[in-house]
Design a protein that fits this description.
heterotrimer, A mainly alpha, B mainly alpha, C alpha+beta, A: mainly alpha, MetI-like fold, 0% strand, B: mainly alpha, 77% helix
C-alpha cells in the first residue's frame, strides 16, 4: 500500500545537493577520526603529514585498556542478561495471561526516555549510599538496565505480537506442555530474532554508555568510554584510536541487528511497489 | 474456548504475580529513587518543608545553565527537524530502492553515534587546528577562529545536530510514507496545484509527526550529557553538567540545589515525552484509515 | 452525439502494454462500466481520462475539446477512489468544500453547495465530523459528494465499493445509480464485479488484457456474448464445441444443435463454439417432440442445492453440462437418473473458435 507520491525515474539536481550535504555531514567526522588515529601529525595541513600505527600500540599497551574493556563488556553483558530475564517472561505473561497490564507496562517502558541519565544517576547515588551497593558495579548495571530495557521491550514485544502467542500456548498446553517447556521450546524459538536484536541493541547502547558509568562508579570501576574521555584531554591521537575501536564494536552490533532483522522479516516482505 | 476463558478469569488475581519482578525492579531502581529525590528537593536538613533550594537557583550560574540547555536543545532540535524533514523527503522520493535503504541504514547507525567519540570527532574537524578550520584558512583564507569555537554554544549545536538529523530522518520517513497517493490525486482532481496540496493537506497531515519529532529531539538534546561533557570542559555550562557536578562532587554544590535542578530537568523532559506521546497518537489516528 | 470520446488510446508501463488502441464514444448522461479482471487496463484507462496518466498515443476529447494533455487539476472531471481518499485533516464539510475553494467560489455559495450535496447523499448530520469517525460506507458517500460538489462534467468511479462489506455495497450501489440519474451526469464506473456492472450500467465495456472484448447493454452482454472470454467471465456458460453444418446448425459429435443465427455468417465446416447458460436449459424426463428444440440425453452426476435453484451436473456423451432448475418445475431429481436436456435455439450463442 505504501506507494510513494508520483514516482519519477531520475532524481532532480537539488536532491543530489541535499543528499551530498547529508552524506558529508554524517561521514566527515567519522572519516576524520579514522584518519586521525593513523596520522603522525595532523594539525598544520589538510591531510596528515604521515601515517603510523603507534597510537594503537600505545592504546593497547595501556594497562587501563584491558581493564576498561573488560569492565565495559561485563556491564554490557550483565545488562543484556538481566534485561532478558526481566523482559522476556514479562512480555509473554502480559501478552497471554494479563493483557490488562499492557498499558502499565508500556508506561514503565516509556518512562526512562523522560528521565535524563544525570538525574537517574543523582537519585540512585543519593538513595543507595550504603556499602556495598553505593557506587558499585551492581548499581551501575541496575541503572543501565533501566535505560536500555525499553529497547529490549520494543524488540521482544514486536516479535511476540507477530506470532500468535495465545494459540501457540493453547496448542502446546493441549499437547501436555507446562509453562517452562512452552517458553523454552515454543515461544522463545519463535521470537528468537526479536530477542537477538533486542540483546544486540542493549549491548551496543550500554557499551557506549558514559554518563551513568562516570557518575555512578566513576574511577572505582572505569569503563571504556571513560578511558576514551580521559585520553581526549591527554593524547588526542590515542583518543582517536580508542574511538575507532568503540565505533567498530558499535558497528558490528548494528550490522548484526540489521542482519537479524532482515532474516527475521524475510518471508513476509511487505515493501513491494504497487506500480 | 469458553473453558479457557473461565480458567483465565479464575486465575486473574494470581496472574498479577507474573509482573511483580518487573514492577519491583522499576520501583526500586527508577520510581522510588526519583520520588525520594523529589522529596529531598523540598526538605531541609531538619526535615521541614522548604522551597529554599528552588530559591537558590536564582543565581546567574544556574539560571544560565538552564538558559544554555534550552538554547542548545531548541536550536539543535529546530535545525534537526527542518533539515531532517528535507533530507527525509529527498530519501523518501529517491527513485532507487537500494539507495533509500542504504541511507536509512546510515541514519540508523549515525543517530547512535553520540557521546565522547562524537565530541572528539568534532574537535578533530572543527577544533582550532581541525581539518575544516585548516581548509577555511588555507583555501578560502577565512579565519573561523576565534569568532567560532567548537567549544562554544554553536560548536555544540553543530555536534548535536549530528545525531539529531538522522533521528529526525528516521522519524519522518514513515510519516511521508503515510501520505497516501490518493490524497494527492484527489486534491489534483478537485483542482488543487501541487503547492496547494502541500499547504492544505500534506503539511497539516504531517504536522503531528513534525511536532512529535521536534519535542523528541528537544528532549534528546536536553538530557544529553556525554557529548557536552567532552566538548565544553567548563567553558559553557549546561543543566545536566551542573547536576553531574553535584553527583561527582567536582564542584562544591549544596546537594539540595542539585536535587532542585534535577527536578526541573525532569519536569521539562517529562512534558516533552508527554507531548511526544500525544502527538504520535494524533499522527496515528490520521493515518489509521 | 458522443460527449466523451477516446480514440486509439494506448499506454504501456515498462514496455508492458496496459491499454491497446482503446476507442470508445460515450454519450452525455450515461453510466458506463468498465468491467474486467484485475490488470485488464480498466483502471489505467480511467486514470488517463482523469489525467493521472498520459497516454502514449491517441486522443481524449470531452465535449468536442481535446483534453489529452490538460493537467488533471484543470479537467473538471470528478473522481472517487477505491479507498475513500478523504483528507484526514479536514472535516466532512471541509472535504466537500475543498474543490469549490480551489475554484475561488464565494463563501455563501460554498456553504449552499456543501449542504445540498450532503442532502443528496443523505448525510447532512455528519458535516462537522472527521473521516476517521465515519464508517467505510459513509466515507465513500462523502467522497462521492466531494467529487460531485464541483459539478464536474464527468464522474469517474474507480472500484468505489470494493473496500466495503457486501450489505453496504448493495445499498450504496443503488444510491450511486439514483444520484447519477437524478443529476444526469456522465459517469464511468470501473469494477471487476460483473453483477455490479450489469445491475448499474447503461452500457458495459468488457475489457481483457488491455483490449475491449465487447461493448453493449447489460442484457446484450449477458445474453449475446461475442467472445468466449465475455461468456465465461460473466456468469456461467456451458460450452459445446462442434462444426458449422448449416446456416444455424452445429454438429457436435453425436448430436446436432440448432442455434440462433450468428450475427455474421459463418462458413459451413468452421470450428465453432456454442454457449448456453445453465438457467436456459430445461430438464425433462422425455425428449421434446418438437424438432426445432434441442434435446440431448444425459445422466445426472451431481445435484447441488443452491437455495433458489438446484444445479445439476449432467454427463452428456462424456462432457459435463450444468443446468439450473427449480424443484417446482421439474420435481425431485435423483443421482444417476437419465434425463433430457432441452433448450430452444434462441439461447444458443454460436461463435467461431479462434484458438
Amino acid at each position: 500500500m505504501a506507494s510513494r507520491l508520483n514516482t519519477k525515474h531520475k532524481a532532480p539536481f537539488s536532491y543530489l545537493v541535499i543528499l551530498a550535504f547529508f552524506l558529508g555531514y554524517m561521514l566527515l567526522p567519522i572519516l576524520a577520526t579514522y584518519l586521525f588515529s593513523v596520522a603522525t601529525r595532523w594539525d598544520r595541513t589538510i591531510l596528515p603529514e604521515g601515517y603510523t600505527l603507534e597510537w594503537y600500540q600505545t592504546a593497547f599497551a595501556s594497562s587501563y585498556f584491558t581493564i576498561t574493556l573488560r569492565n565495559s563488556l561485563i556491564v554490557s553483558m550483565a545488562s543484556v542478561l538481566v534485561s532478558l530475564l526481566i523482559v522476556v517472561p514479562t512480555v509473554y505473561w502480559v501478552r497471554t495471561r494479563l493483557p490488562e497490564a499492557k498499558p502499565l507496562l508500556e508506561l514503565l517502558m516509556i518512562l526512562p526516555f523522560g528521565i535524563p541519565s544525570v538525574v537517574l544517576a543523582l537519585a540512585l547515588v543519593q538513595i543507595y549510599n550504603m556499602p556495598p551497593i553505593a557506587r558499585s558495579p551492581y548499581l551501575l548495571v541496575s541503572a543501565t538496565v533501566i535505560f536500555s530495557m525499553p529497547f529490549m521491550y520494543r524488540a521482544v514485544s514486536n516479535a511476540i505480537e507477530a506470532i500468535d502467542a495465545n494459540t501457540l500456548t493453547e496448542a502446546a498446553q493441549s499437547l501436555g506442555a507446562g509453562l517452562g517447556p512452552i517458553l523454552t521450546r515454543v515461544i522463545i524459538p519463535n521470537i528468537f530474532p526479536g530477542i537477538l536484536s533486542g540483546s544486540l541493541l542493549v549491548f551496543a547502547t550500554v557499551f557506549a554508555e558514559f554518563t551513568l558509568a562516570k557518575l555512578i562508579t566513576g574511577a572505582g570501576f572505569k569503563t571504556f568510554p571513560l578511558l576514551l574521555v580521559e585520553y581526549t584531554r591527554k593524547n588526542g591521537s590515542v583518543a582517536a584510536a580508542l574511538s575507532v575501536i568503540s565505533f567498530t564494536i558499535a558497528w558490528v552490533a548494528s550490522m548484526l541487528i540489521l542482519l537479524v532483522g532482515r532474516s527475521g522479516k524475510s518471508g513476509r516482505q511487505e515493501h513491494a511497489p504497487t506500480h | 474456548m469458553p473453558k479457557g476463558r473461565n480458567l483465565r478469569r479464575r486465575k486473574r488475581w494470581t496472574a498479577w504475580l507474573g509482573i511483580v519482578p518487573v514492577l519491583v525492579f522499576c520501583f526500586a531502581i527508577e520510581i522510588v529513587p526519583i520520588m525520594m529525590m523529589v522529596r529531598g528537593s523540598v526538605i531541609d536538613s531538619k526535615g521541614n518543608f522548604t522551597l529554599a533550594n528552588y530559591a537558590s537557583l536564582g543565581i546567574p550560574l544556574y539560571v544560565n545553565s538552564f538558559i544554555n540547555s534550552i538554547k542548545l536543545s531548541s536550536l539543535s532540535a529546530l535545525i534537526g527537524t527542518a533539515l531532517g524533514t528535507l533530507i527525509g523527503y529527498v530519501i523518501y522520493r529517491w527513485p532507487l530502492n537500494r539507495v533509500r535503504e542504504a541511507l536509512i541504514t546510515l541514519s540508523d547507525v549515525t543517530t547512535n553515534f553520540a557521546g565522547a567519540p562524537l565530541a572528539f570527532a568534532f574537535i578533530i574537524i572543527l577544533g582550532s587546528t581541525g581539518i575544516v578550520t585548516q581548509f577555511f584558512l588555507q583555501y578560502l583564507n577565512i579565519k573561523i577562529y576565534p569568532e567560532f569555537s567548537v567549544y562554544s554554544l554553536w560548536g555544540l549545536v553543530l555536534a548535536y545536530v549530528y545525531f539529531q538529523l538522522p533521528l529526525m530522518v528516521l522519524l519522518i520517513i514513515p510519516a511521508f510514507t503515510g501520505l497516501r497517493k490518493e490524497w494527492f490525486e484527489s486534491a489534483q482532481n478537485l483542482g488543487a496545484s501541487s503547492f496547494q496540496f502541500w499547504r492544505r493537506i500534506g503539511l497539516p497531515v504531517l504536522t503531528p509527526s513534525l511536532v512529535s519529532g521536534l519535542v523528541l529531539l528537544f528532549a534528546n538534546a536536553f538530557g544529553a550529557y556525554a557529548t557536552a561533557y567532552t566538548l565544553t570542559g567548563s567553558s559553557l555550562t549546561l543543566a545536566t553538567i551542573q547536576i553531574g557536578f553535584t553527583v561527582t562532587g567536582e564542584v562544591r554544590h549544596d546537594p539540595g540545589i542539585g536535587l532542585a535542578m534535577a527536578l526541573i530537568s525532569l519536569l521539562i523532559m517529562g512534558s516533552c515525552i508527554a507531548s511526544y506521546q500525544w502527538a504520535t497518537r494524533a499522527a496515528r489516528r490520521w493515518s489509521s484509515r | 452525439m458522443a460527449y466523451l470520446e477516446l480514440t486509439d488510446v494506448s499506454k504501456s508501463f515498462a514496455n508492458v502494454a496496459a491499454v491497446k488502441n482503446f476507442s470508445l464514444a460515450i454519450e452525455k448522461g450515461k453510466l458506463v462500466s468498465f468491467l474486467g479482471p484485475s490488470g485488464c487496463g480498466k483502471t489505467t484507462t480511467l486514470r488517463m481520462i482523469a489525467g493521472f496518466e498520459q497516454p502514449d498515443s491517441g486522443t481524449i476529447t470531452l465535449g468536442g475539446q481535446d483534453i489529452t494533455v490538460v493537467p488533471p487539476n484543470q479537467r473538471g472531471i470528478g473522481m472517487v477512489f477505491q479507498a475513500y481518499a478523504l483528507f484526514p485533516n479536514m472535516s466532512v464539510a471541509e472535504n466537500i468544500a475543498f474543490g469549490l475553494k480551489m475554484k475561488h467560489t464565494p463563501k455563501p455559495e460554498i456553504e449552499k453547495q456543501v449542504d445540498s450535496v450532503l442532502e443528496l447523499i443523505r448525510l447532512s448530520d455528519t458535516a462537522k465530523r472527521f473521516p476517521h469517525q465515519l464508517s467505510g460506507g459513509q466515507q465513500q458517500r462523502i467522497a462521492l459528494a466531494r467529487a460531485l460538489a464541483v459539478q464536474p462534467q464527468v464522474l469517474l468511479l474507480d472500484e468505489p465499493l470494493s473496500a466495503l462489506d457486501a450489505e453496504v455495497r448493495l445499498a450504496l450501489r443503488g444510491e450511486i445509480r439514483r444520484i447519477q440519474s437524478d443529476l444526469g451526469i456522465t459517469t464511468i464506473y470501473v469494477t471487476h464485479d460483473q453483477e455490479e456492472a450489469l445491475s448499474i450500467s447503461d452500457l458495459v465495456v468488457v475489457m481483457n488484457k488491455g483490449d475491449i472484448e465487447q461493448v453493449g447493454s447489460p442484457i446484450d452482454i449477458y445474453r449475446k456474448p461475442q467472445t468466449r472470454f465475455v461468456a465465461t467471465f460473466i456468469g456461467t456458460a456451458n460450452q459445446f464445441t462442434g462444426e458449422m453444418s448449416g446456416e444455424h446448425t452445429v454438429l457436435c459429435g453425436q448430436y446436432q444443435l440448432n442455434t440462433r443465427p450468428p450475427a455474421d455468417r459463418i462458413a459451413s465446416g468452421s470450428a465453432v463454439l456454442v454457449l448456453v447458460r445453465p438457467e436456459a436449459i430445461q430438464v425433462e424426463m422425455e425428449a421434446d417432440p418438437r424438432p426445432s428444440v434441442n434435446a440431448i440425453p444425459g445422466m445426472v452426476e451431481t445435484v447441488t442445492f443452491h437455495g433458489a435453484v438446484t444445479r445439476l451436473g449432467v454427463n452428456v456423451y462424456g462432457q459435463r453440462v450444468v443446468a439450473d432448475v427449480t424443484e417446482t418445475n421439474t420435481g425431485v431429481i435423483n443421482l444417476n437418473q437419465k434425463v433430457w436436456l432441452t433448450f430452444p435455439p434462441e439461447v444458443c450463442q454460436v461463435m467461431v473458435q479462434n484458438e
